Amino acid sequence: MNESSVxxxxxxxxxxxLPEVLDTMVPCFAERxxxxxxxxxxxxxxQAAMKLARMRVAALLGCLPTEIVFTxxxxxxxxxxxxxxxxxxxxxxxxxxxxxxxxxxGGWLERHGCEVTRVGVNSQGQVEPDAVRHALKPNTRLxxxxxxxxxxxxxxxxxxxxxxxxxxxxxxxTDAVQAAGKIPILVDAIGCDLLxxxxxxxxxxxxxxxxxxxxxxxxLPQLHGGHQERSRRPGTENVAGIAGLGRASEIALSGxxxxxxxxxxxxxxxxxxxxxxxxxxxxxxGSSVMRVPNTTNIFFEHAGGDALVLALDELGIAIxxxxxxxxxxxxxxxxxxxxxxxxxxxxxxxxxxxxKQNTAEEIDKVAPLIAEAVAQQRQxxxxxxxxxxxxxxx
Length: 394
Ligand SMILES: Cc1ncc(COP(=O)(O)O)c(C=O)c1O
Description:
seven-stranded mixed sheet; globular; about 40% helix; binds pyridoxal-5'-phosphate; 14 helices; alpha/beta; three-stranded antiparallel sheet
């Protein structure tokens, strides 16, 4: 099966690059090949492409172009924010449902002399602002709570947490990798000092992203080298990737008002109701709180899990159980477990995430196929459990 015949519903893992984005990138490999730090015209043309991209990313986030630091993606942005702000002896507050880019960096910081508190979530998958307030200590330096969860799409109360951080005089970072382009982001309204985005979640290229760093925030670089990115991230820039991120950001920003995001929500809701109506004993995880418009996480009783992912793959439907970087692990989702699901419920839940390329026809086509695959899986499970076990030889 080739990619064009697949219904791709795994856009929280990565999105296809839009043709307009590719058109912006291609010249950076050819006529704009220069090193943006060079003084000659070739360098200056590359510098101009980066300047335009910086303005476009800043417009998406509501910040100044000078507050954008280009990175190699969401993982680097999260690492740079946490490691660049924390010093030995400092205390960091994160949540239990963060992406591994934050959770693992938290673990690394703990092994290097920092204290870390992981606040839990309620049964609806949201961090309680009061839990963050109660976790504050005299040595708390940074709070990092994501804007939207990658597995469930559930939005976190970042505006309230921003106020708590400001009152406590603590820096605030938010991982907005899964929120960008799906809901409006205004860094001043959130009250964050640092914010991470990644191009490949908004129909831009893989391996490039940006970290917003509010003017005056004492971020230390984590790589050592030249003075690129105002000495916050050395290394010759990925000009084509950055230009692609810029164009993808511009398109993502207009999508918030031109009906594209609303269309995604209509499609997501159509998929959800088709699945819930066609398949008994299914439940949407986190349906009663605000979520990003493209994501749904569904529990299929006595079905689901990696076996269903593979069965649907055979039928030309690409979905996942959760984050791509933890795929293949038999462990239940720590995000769903933190919401109170048990191991079995968590393993039987799947994530469907839509992108700009998905159509109503695709949704109408996949829903009955999913119903069929779930019914088959349940039938095999029932047969397995009803088969009498052979007597054990003595
Ligand atoms: C919430 C969140 N943060 C960070 C990342 C890491 O981004 P990247 O793949 O660009 O390193 C991801 C990727 O799935 C994500 O979903």
